[in-house]
Design a protein that fits this description.
metal-binding; alpha/beta; binds molybdenum atom; Rossmann fold; seven-stranded mixed beta sheet; binds ligand MGD; binds iron/sulfur cluster; 4Fe-4S; single chain; molybdenum; about 20% strand; 36 strands; iron; 6 domains; Dimethylsulfoxide Reductase, domain 2; Mopterin_OxRdtase_4Fe-4S_dom; Phosphorylase Kinase, domain 1; six-stranded mixed beta sheet
Length: about 900
């Protein structure tokens, strides 16, 4: 009998409900949960491919110390001893935890409790510092608490949705689909996208503002001024529910329209259109994400946006409000338990003596951190200079994701004692650790997560843990008990932790704190197992609320919201000649450092190597052609090597490089090595989207493409990038020919034996070299090298590993690197669910399929998860343009 489990997707903050089915043979399939209020059955490409990422390959299966397998008991004793001894000798601030918005709430709660309440230091910070800290700071300044007032439904009810620094179509795809569906059913609804790049999201936008990097504060200050000048301020709301309006308006009004144009890089006409739409529409939701948060002015951007909503009273009502989109599945839960170094559990404040006393009394703990701990960037600085001597990293990969990543790497290497808890054994960070603790992952662990709309959902296990992997909460509580805190960490299950967390949220609350889920303070195991998704608050007594601030009451002591006066830089920072702004972010089908999505061949078809998007005119200036390799460097000698992708969707003067590639997946593409550790002074969040770099074409002796059934053991090339493919791997390579030639290298790298038949072709004059390795009728490897970027169809070559090659003709086609007649080249994969390529879609459009539905009927593309629909639309539109010319 197949067994179904309701759980929650472990990727983005949309928090979709998933039904996982394990059949009799033990194989897993997933589908969207039609009853989950976040997604009503939909899943995006990453969610749909979850079952493909569950394999044991690369998993950490046993505790390891110094690379050697050990027992749990000795390992936990060792960690407890090292932490206790370090604290005894150097004080509580000599140790630190660096945790993650991908921990479950229960894991997070005990980590925070151990550090702040028992070790007595504030030194627990999280990758949410790189993600949500500016939103948290902005909310606290404006509302007196870190409250997200709205719900997803508000995006559907709004007449205008403004997306600031958010690539919703790729990063919150199911929410994007809800928005796209609402707009399709109500065409009067407008969408504005404010992003320097023309992203997949801007394809549904009525207006795309290609704002210059960090032009957002100027733009929203201009909007506030416009609202005041055109008499759109809700005076009675402002008077009754807020303070500080005139100061905010004064500081907003410093720029003339010409200066505003200069500061934002936008024409006066576009700016006015945006102002009119915002001013004239009552139901406005402004969503913001990393284009806002990850900036040296991130907190000010958040408040510049909130100021406009407060000034018009458009907050806390259906279809209105500022809406911070959370990135990770449990970014919100981490904030609830106080996982940031400057917060305390249950939305209390570490600077507040009463709050500290209350949390300490609730925990009956011997001490409580008496001040904020070190924020992520400061924390790794302290590791680097030896102030922190023992570090525990859980569920995050900072060697890849922190700014100044090479310094972070060196700091971890030099730290006397580093523990890493991860599911995977060979991440760039885990490889440097003294101790690796194997963690259970999605499908194996049990707990709760909170999504962007404050909805708490269960992650439920449906698989046995592999090897000796154990859940994170267990790692932490076992170490805590061994450090002497037996009673306080004596939990049997996540349900007990959740109950305590709920009780703390209600403890001496009396409606003074937004986060209250006291209704669950006495939850038992069975109720926890059955817990349906719910939105907070859920106080023990009194009503829950769908939206915060509907009554005009905020969490500052006087109950009023604050306008925050923010200043815009008059002009964008000057760029030196030949330098570019380095914008970084995400692609549709990969998740961060790819430790999980990288396991799925399907998810690797969309974009399979690290790249750099450049405007064609900028590229021409630098003599860079499409598909060249480029060297992107900072002024300190750090550089990466990535593929050039020329696109007019990129604004001039700025390039875009994704954050996903690591030392596991490419030779030199960790983009954070180039990002300096500049932070927002209020939130401490790094400015990850505005580094300064220069660009140069890189001309290697040869370029090559390889498909192989095995992962090559040696890669002696200056450039390589590897991705999973159906039946094996696909690699892009470039550099010099290895000393003994390509064939000798292939033999050695793939361990080819005598049974292998080698077919070769070499044209010295043209610089072409092709090598096939076959075992019987099966292709083991196909290698294509050339002096210029290799033109072989990637998907076609990958497909050759799956079929028989029995006649000489098939082999000669293979060496030629060309599909035969009747085997058309699919082109780059657009729809990963059905493996449909761009050339197939173009061809179908040429045959008369002019709508998404027609394409779907013919090719199935876009009919499953829908993540590729913006790209299909783009192909249809591009063909229509061509036809019109
Ligand atoms: N596919 C996929 N989805 C994900 C993730 C993933 O790894 N992969 N990660 C999740 C996580 S943790 C997060 S935090 C979210 C992030 O979700 P998003 O914030 O939507 O994604 P990003 O690509 O980081 O950046 C968003 C946009 O900010 C723009 N931007 C850069 N500078 C500026 C600026 O100065 N002003 C403005 N207005 N815009 C600017 C960039 O061009 C980019 O398109 O995604 C979540 N979802
Ligand atoms: N340049 C640049 N840098 C960025 C960003 C950017 O936009 N640009 N975005 C930033 C943002 S918003 C974020 S959120 C970060 C994300 O950056 P990271 O958090 O470093 O990236 P992940 O790959 O998600 O790392 C999660 C790790 O946890 C492991 N893991 C998964 N599940 C579990 C579990 O249940 N338990 C344990 N113990 N381990 C688990 C995974 O294998 C993986 O190694 O990157 C930040 N860095
Ligand atoms: S939108 Fe996609 S990645 Fe995000 S929670 Fe839903 S299925 Fe998962
Ligand atoms: Mo994030």
């Amino acid at each position: 009998m197949a067994c179904e489990t309701r759980t929650t997707c472990p990727y983005c903050g949309v928090g979709c409900g998933v039904i996982a089915t394990v059949d009799d043979a033990g194989s897993v399939s997933v589908r969207g949960d039609p009853e989950h209020p976040a997604n009503f059955g939909r899943l995006c490409s990453k969610g749909s491919a979850l079952a493909e990422t569950l394999g044991d390959d690369g998993r950490a299966l046993f505790p390891e110390v110094g690379g050697q397998r050990t027992s749990w008991n000795t390992t936990l004793d060792l960690i407890a001893d090292r932490f206790s001894n370090t604290i005894a000798e150097h004080g509580p601030d000599s140790v630190a935890f660096y945790v993650s918005g991908q921990l479950l709430t229960e894991d997070y709660y005990v980590a925070n409790k151990l550090m702040k309440g028992y070790i007595g230091s504030g030194n627990i910070d999280t990758n949410s510092r790189l993600c949500m800290a500016s939103s948290v700071a902005g909310h606290r300044r404006a509302f007196g608490a870190d409250t997200v007032p709205g719900t997803y439904e508000d995006l559907e009810l709004a007449d205008l949705v403004v997306l600031v620094g958010s690539n919703l179509a790729w990063c919150h795809p199911v929410l994007y689909q809800r928005l796209a569906a609402a707009k399709a059913s109500r065409p009067a609804m407008k969408v504005i996208v404010i992003d320097p790049r023309r992203t997949a999201t801007s394809d549904i936008a009525d207006l795309h503002l290609s704002v210059s990097p960090d032009g957002d504060v100027a733009l929203f200050n201009g909007l506030l001024t416009h609202l005041a000048e055109t008499d759109r301020i809700d005076q009675s709301y402002v008077a009754a529910n807020t303070t500080g309006f005139s100061e905010a308006l004064l500081s907003a009004s410093r720029l003339s329209m010409a200066e505003l144009s200069e500061a934002t890089g936008l024409s006066g006409m576009l700016i006015r259109q945006f102002f009119w739409l915002f001013a004239g529409t009552e139901r406005v939701v402004t969503c913001y994400s990393q284009g806002v948060n990850q900036s040296a002015s991130g907190s000010d951007k958040v408040n510049a946006i909130i100021n406009c909503h407060l000034a018009t009273g458009r907050i806390g009502r259906p279809g209105m409000g500022p809406f911070s989109l959370t990135g990770q599945p449990n970014a919100m839960g981490g904030r609830e338990v106080g996982g940031l170094a400057n917060m305390l559990a249950a939305h209390m404040e570490i600077e507040n003596g009463d709050h500290r006393d209350r949390v300490r009394r609730f925990w009956s703990s011997p001490r409580i951190a008496d001040r904020a701990g070190l924020k992520a960037v400061e924390m790794f600085d302290a590791v680097a200079d030896g102030r922190i001597k023992a570090l525990w990293i859980m569920s995050t990969n900072p060697v890849v994701s922190m700014p100044n990543a090479d310094k972070v790497k060196a700091a971890i290497e030099a730290c006397p004692f580093v523990v890493v808890s991860d599911m995977q054994k060979n991440t760039d960070t885990a490889r440097l650790a003294h101790v690796v603790l194997p963690a259970t992952g999605w499908g194996e662990k049990s707990g709760t997560v909170t999504n962007s709309e404050r909805r708490i959902s269960r992650q439920r296990p449906f698989l046995a843990a592999p090897g000796e992997a154990r859940p994170d909460w267990w790692h932490i509580t076992e170490v805590a008990k061994r450090m002497g805190f037996v009673d306080a960490f004596d939990y049997e299950s996540p349900a007990e932790i959740f109950a305590e967390h709920s009780a703390l949220s209600a403890f001496e609350n009396d409606g003074l704190r937004d986060f209250d889920i006291g209704a669950f303070a006495a939850i038992n195991q069975k109720q926890y197992e059955e817990l349906a998704p719910f939105q907070w608050p859920r106080p023990a007594i009194g009503a829950t609320k769908e939206r915060f601030f509907a009554d005009g009451r905020f969490y500052h002591p006087d109950g009023k919201a604050r306008f925050v006066p923010v200043h815009a830089a008059l002009q964008p920072v000057e760029r030196a000649h030949g330098s570019f702004v380095l914008n970084t972010g995400r692609v549709r089908d990969h998740w961060h450092t790819m430790t999980r999505t990288g396991k799925s061949a399907r998810l690797s078809t969309h974009l399979a190597e690290p790249f750099c998007e450049i405007h064609p005119l900028d590229a021409a200036d630098q003599q860079i052609r499409d598909a060249d390799l480029v060297k992107v460097s900072d002024d300190k000698g750090h550089f990466i090597l990535v593929r050039a992708l020329l696109t007019e969707r990129q604004a001039r003067g700025s390039i875009f490089v994704p954050m996903h590639w690591t030392d596991e997946t490419a030779s030199r593409a960790r983009v954070d090595a180039l990002v300096p550790p500049d932070v927002d002074p209020i939130s401490g969040q790094p400015a990850l989207k505005q580094a300064r770099v220069s660009l140069a074409r890189h001309a290697p002796a040869f370029h090559a493409f390889l498909v192989a059934t095995e992962r090559p053991r040696i890669l002696p090339f200056e450039y390589w990038a590897i991705a999973k493919a159906d039946g094996g791997y696909r690699l892009e390579l470039a550099g010099d020919e290895p000393e003994n030639g390509f064939e000798a290298w292939l033999n050695q790298a793939l361990g080819l034996d005598e049974d292998i038949e080698i077919v070769r072709y070499r044209d010295m004059a043209a610089g072409d070299c092709r090598i096939l390795a076959l075992r019987g009728t099966r292709l083991m490897a196909a290698f294509f090298a050339s002096r210029s970027p290799v033109a072989v169809s990637r998907q076609w070559a990958v497909d050759q590993m799956l079929i028989e090659h029995d006649d000489a003709k098939a082999r000669s086609r293979l060496v030629a690197g060309r599909p035969g007649a009747g085997q058309p080249d699919k082109g780059a994969i657009v729809c990963s669910c059905f493996s449909v390529g761009a050339m197939e879609i173009s061809h179908a459009v040429g045959q008369g399929c002019r709508s998404m539905d027609a394409i779907g009927q013919l090719l199935s593309a876009g009919t499953n998860c829908g993540s590729c629909r913006p790209e299909i639309r783009r192909i249809i539109d591009a063909q229509a343009l061509l036809a019109a010319e």
